[in-house]
Amino acid sequence: MKLILLYLMSMLYVAAGVYHFIRPRFYMKIMPPWLPWHLELVYVSGAIEIILGLLLLPALTRGLAAWGIIVLLIAVFPANVQMAINYWNKNNPYLWIAIMRLPLQFVLIWWAWQYTK
User: Fold this and answer.
1) Fewest Cβ atoms nearer than 10 Å: which of 58, 76, 104, 112?
2) What span, in angstroms and rounded, lies between the C-alpha atoms of 63 and 71?
3) Longest C-alpha distance within the chain, in Å?
4) How many whole angstroms from its chain centre is CA 67?
5) What pTM was computed for the model?
6) Rg of the chain's alpha carbons, rounded to an integer?
7) Helix axes 59-89, 95-113, angle to 10 degrees
8) In sequence order, which ranges of 58-94 are alpha helices (DSSP H)?
């Protein structure tokens, strides 16, 4: 089961990273305004997600990739907060999804942590 969850996590990060290149405007909308270079950061974070997702697969790089994912999830947390703020300000009916993403980050961190050992 742990191996299946590992492959699932890998696929999720690779797919999310690819989506950064397919729909960068979605990610740019949730970038905190105090951050510079929004488009560049969207592409960099997408590339990092793809790389870390792939590095989860070999046992040799799995621990490093899992720690990298944890750092990435912490780094992108302000974007999730910004998304919730944006949805709140616009009375977006999907505000509940943006709010649910916040604690989900902690679940994703815990999931990645399972592969740091």
Assistant:
1) 58
2) 13
3) 46
4) 13
5) 0.92
6) 15
7) 160
8) 59-89
